[in-house]
């Protein structure tokens, strides 16, 4: 039922009890009341205020002996100045009998009954004529023709006839009675509504609004397909607090029913649906034309069709799915769940903490205000994400590709990603959650810290220049915090965690982890497992909270990145052991670096214990077994005799060396050396070798060679990629044939000139070998010229964690 605001008119003192043309209106304070379609107007006309709003058309009412005016447009009304009634047309009134009422060419008010008679039942015919007319009809079966103009056609309280109402031309407002009415909007942009009874509403041409409330019975609605084909079907509540169900059964057609009443019906030729203040369910899956839906209030569920739909949740916590087609989704306020579906969609969350998914097609997701979550799947194709304001998160889902996601930042909160078939850009995003597979994230171009949560998989993460929080999850992860005070959690399995610059907090958690705080004063937690804590020059003062020397879980220090005052690698004699004043050991190194081991009594740290913890006694170079004893490799020369395992003493025929700088290792991480911890084989101190170097092992009685890089991955805690070494010089010893020599009391291979090894050498080194073995360099293979390998290489898949069996031969030399 329509409601109107009526403003009291303070007529001049000569007012004779009825408004008429020429009556003056004195200025006064605003007094207003609400009129409805049940109230009887006095007539229509115009009031004029010369200096403010000018001439204003409207309808006059009487209440308690006072005159009130309902303006057609109440902008700036009332103006608080003196005015004049410049036009007044008294209402045309019918009788209880069968009337034939004719309006004028002006703006008429036609009332089809005498107010003093209750429920008049005359069968009337009303022709309002031209002008903007107001028609109120009674209980009879009336025929009403609005004619031209913007007419208002309503009913008197209790009107129950079966009426035929035709608005005619113009933008009409029509409300039916409680009978079975037929309402025709005609041309123009009309506002139409039925009432109780079985109504038929044909909106006709124009952009019409048809409204159904939950106190109606049944309505058949036809929107019309005129030149301006955009008709709105809206729903609202009068008697219940439950929403409406709308289901499309074909293009622009469907059915509706209120859940809290018996109101139901069918419709066709509708392009726009507006829900109630409560939770509505709108299903467009049967439509192919593309519709607009506004959920309005309540927690709505909206499902799009196969056309290009425009779906708006408005207020409430809505769930919207676009279906097929290039859809536009707006969540509005509330915590909404939005899914674009197939097609090139635009999805906007609006206010609230929303969840957005693009689906197949080239989609654009915009979070708006609130803490939003964006879901990206590996089958989504191209999806761009703009987080909007507040705190926004992208969650990547790898359901079938198995490749994981690659995320590259190009600025603060922005970058690009690739995941299976999906790729796109993102901006204004504060948090990333990666997949269960091996993911790669590089945030080094961002000055703003990132928050990253990883699922399973062996992930590689490079942090930003800000304060990052990185949760690595399961898998053997490699995490570098970059600059800034970072917080990094390794999760389970064997992780490599580097804090970089800044005061970082690193937690290895479960597994045999490698932790390097980098520059700055860092706090380190190894967690369970045999962990390695690495130090470096200019590394600051680090605190380790759970260093273990209990014989069950044995942690290590990696000081290969530290040097003494002369630039030589540090050894146990360079370490000063102190106390932090609370019984915790403090190790100080020559250039000012230090590390505090909470829970470790400094009195227990003698040279033997420091050695077991990973601080070497000698670091001049790898020692090679010769008839004169073990000699550092850098002191050997061509022609020197070396002890071999199979052929006694043999002369060196060629020595190669290759220095790799910090930049070289950064650009080629596969060339990083492998550290074999003291005691892991027969070595009584750490042994540093190249990743492809072969170490003698045994597997089920078969003496073989195992590459150092494979041992670092699968051979146990005693074998690690030496990430703490900033630069390295590799030496190659070559003999007349491939030999097994003794390095640091451990059998390992000499240089074998296979194609891979030769390709890794500098041209000058290849020329040297060519001078010694000219046929070798020009041959297609080394076996016929140089001979076979001393032992076969063990494939990686055969390497197990049965350390006692795997390294039986090596330990026999101890």
Could you explain how this protein is built, in words?
With 814 residues, this protein is mostly beta strands. Among the domains are: 3-90, no CATH class; 281-402, no CATH class; 623-752 and 789-811, Endonuclease - Pi-scei, Chain A, domain 1. Helices cover 6% and strands 37% of the residues. It has 9 helices and 73 strands. The chain has a 27-stranded mixed β-sheet, with no helix packed on it. It has a 25-stranded mixed β-sheet, with no helix packed on it. Residues 473-504 are annotated as: Disordered. Residues 616-754 form the Hedgehog/Intein (Hint) domain. Its main location: secreted.
Q: Secondary-structure map with pairings?
A:
Elements: E1 3-8, E2 10-11, E3 24-26, E4 32-36, E5 41-49, E6 54-63, E7 66-71, E8 83-90, E9 92-93, E10 100-102, E11 109-111, E12 125-127, E13 134-137, E14 143-145, E15 152-155, E16 164-166, E17 173-175, E18 182-184, E19 191-193, E20 198-202, E21 209-213, E22 218-222, E23 232-236, E24 244-250, E25 253-258, E26 264-268, E27 272-274, E28 281-283, E29 292-294, E30 301-303, E31 310-312, E32 319-321, E33 328-330, E34 337-339, E35 346-348, E36 355-357, E37 363-366, E38 373-377, E39 383-386, E40 393-397, E41 405-411, E42 414-419, E43 422-427, E44 431-433, E45 440-442, E46 451-453, E47 460-462, E48 469-471, E49 478-480, E50 487-489, E51 496-498, E52 505-507, E53 514-516, E54 523-525, E55 532-536, E56 541-544, E57 556-561, E58 576-579, E59 585-588, E60 594-597, H1 607-613, E61 623-626, E62 629-632, E63 641-643, E64 649-651, E65 654-660, H2 662-667, E66 674-676, E67 687-689, E68 694-699, E69 702-707, H3 708-714, E70 719-721, E71 728-734, E72 740-743, E73 746-749, H4 755-759, H5 763-772, H6 774-778, H7 783-786, ...
Parallel strand pairs: 9-11, 10-12, 11-13, 12-14, 13-15, 14-16, 15-17, 16-18, 17-19, 18-20, 19-21, 20-22, 21-23, 22-26, 23-27, 24-28, 27-29, 28-30, 29-31, 30-32, 31-33, 32-34, 33-35, 34-36, 35-37, 36-38, 37-39, 38-40, 39-43, 40-44, 41-45, 44-46, 45-47, 46-48, 47-49, 48-50, 49-51, 50-52, 51-53, 52-54, ...
Antiparallel strand pairs: 1-4, 1-7, 2-3, 3-8, 5-6, 5-8, 6-7, 24-25, 25-26, 41-42, 42-43, 58-59, 59-60, 61-62, 63-64, 65-71, 66-67, 66-70, 68-69, 72-73
């Amino acid at each position: 039922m329509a409601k109107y605001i009526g403003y009291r008119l303070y007529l001049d003192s000569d007012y004779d009890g009825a408004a008429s043309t020429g009556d003056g209106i004195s200025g006064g304070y605003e007094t207003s009341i609400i009129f409805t379609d049940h109230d009887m107007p006095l007539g229509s006309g115009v009031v004029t205020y010369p200096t403010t709003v000018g001439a204003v058309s409207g309808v006059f009412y009487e209440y308690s002996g006072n005159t009130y005016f309902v303006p057609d447009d109440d902008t700036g009304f009332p103006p608080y100045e003196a005015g004049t009634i410049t036009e007044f047309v008294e209402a045309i009134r019918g009788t209880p009998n069968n009337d034939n009422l004719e309006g004028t060419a002006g703006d008429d008010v036609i009332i089809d009954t005498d107010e003093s008679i209750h429920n008049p039942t005359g069968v009337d015919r009303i022709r309002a004529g031209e002008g903007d007319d107001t028609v109120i009809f009674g209980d009879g079966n009336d025929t009403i023709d609005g004619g031209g103009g913007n007419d208002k056609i309503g009913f008197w309280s209790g009107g129950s006839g079966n009426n035929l109402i035709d608005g005619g031309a113009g933008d009409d407002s029509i409300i039916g009675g409680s009978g079975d009415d037929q309402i025709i909007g005609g041309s123009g942009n009309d506002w139409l509504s039925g009432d109780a009874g079985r109504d038929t509403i044909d909106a006709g041409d124009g952009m019409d609004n048809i409204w159904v409330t939950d106190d109606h019975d049944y309505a058949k609605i036809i929107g019309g397909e005129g030149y301006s084909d955009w008709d709105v079907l809206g729903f609202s509540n009068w008697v219940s607090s439950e929403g409406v169900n709308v289901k499309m059964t074909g293009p622009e057609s469907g059915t509706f029913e209120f859940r809290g009443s018996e109101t139901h019906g069918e419709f066709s030729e509708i392009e726009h649906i507006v829900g109630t203040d409560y939770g509505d369910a709108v299903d467009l899956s049967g439509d192919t034309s593309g519709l607009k839906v506004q959920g309005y209030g309540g927690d709505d569920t909206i499902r799009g069709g196969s056309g290009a739909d425009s779906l708006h949740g408005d207020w409430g916590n809505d769930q919207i799915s676009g279906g097929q087609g290039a859809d536009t989704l707006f969540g509005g306020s509330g915590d909404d769940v939005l899914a674009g579906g197939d097609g090139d969609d635009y999805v906007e969350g609006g206010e609230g903490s929303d969840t957005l998914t693009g689906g197949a097609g080239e989609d654009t997701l915009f979070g708006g205000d609130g803490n939003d979550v964006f879901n990206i799947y590996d089958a989504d194709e191209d999806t761009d994400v703009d987080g909007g304001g507040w705190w926004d998160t992208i969650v990547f889902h790898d359901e079938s590709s198995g490749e994981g996601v690659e995320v590259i930042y190009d600025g603060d909160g922005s970058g690009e990603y690739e995941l299976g078939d999906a790729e796109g850009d993102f901006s204004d995003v504060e948090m990333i959650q990666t997949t269960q597979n091996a993911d790669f994230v590089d945030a080094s171009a961002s000055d703003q810290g990132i928050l990253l949560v990883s699922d399973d998989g062996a992930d590689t993460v490079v942090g930003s220049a800000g304060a990052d929080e990185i949760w690595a999850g399961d898998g053997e992860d490699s995490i570098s915090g970059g600059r800034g005070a970072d917080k990094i959690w390794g999760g389970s399995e064997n992780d490599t965690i580097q804090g970089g610059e800044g005061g970082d907090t690193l937690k290895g958690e479960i597994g045999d982890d490698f932790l390097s705080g980098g520059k700055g004063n860092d706090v380190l937690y190894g967690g369970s497992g045999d962990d390695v804590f690495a130090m470096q020059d200019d590394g600051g003062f680090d605190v380790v909270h759970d260093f273990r020397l209990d014989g069950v879980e044995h942690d290590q220090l990696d000081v290969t990145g530290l040097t003494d005052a002369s630039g030589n690698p540090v050894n146990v004699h360079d370490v000063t052991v102190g106390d932090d004043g609370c019984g915790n050991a403090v190790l100080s190194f020559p250039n000012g670096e230090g590390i505090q081991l909470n829970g470790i009594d400094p009195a227990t740290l003698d040279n033997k214990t420091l050695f077991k913890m990973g601080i070497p006694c000698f670091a001049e170079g790898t020692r090679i077994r010769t008839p004169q004893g073990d000699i550092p490799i850098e002191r050997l020369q061509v022609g020197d005799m070396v002890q071999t395992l199979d052929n006694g003493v043999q002369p060196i025929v060629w020595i190669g060396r290759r220095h790799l700088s910090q930049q070289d290792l950064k650009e080629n991480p596969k060339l990083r050396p492998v550290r074999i911890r003291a005691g892991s084989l027969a070595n009584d101190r750490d042994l540093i070798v190249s990743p492809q170097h072969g170490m003698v092992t045994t597997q089920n009685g078969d003496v073989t060679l195992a590459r150092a890089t494979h041992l670092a991955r699968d051979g146990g805690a005693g074998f690690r990629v030496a990430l703490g070494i900033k630069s390295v010089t590799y030496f190659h010893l070559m003999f007349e044939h491939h030999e097994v020599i003794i390095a640091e009391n451990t059998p390992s291979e000499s240089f074998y000139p296979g194609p891979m090894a030769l390709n890794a050498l500098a041209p000058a080194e290849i020329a040297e070998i060519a001078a010694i073995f000219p046929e070798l360099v020009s041959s297609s293979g080394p076996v016929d010229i140089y001979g076979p390998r001393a032992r076969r290489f063990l494939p990686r898949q055969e390497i197990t964690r049965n350390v006692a069996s795997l390294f039986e031969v090596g330990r026999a030399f101890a």
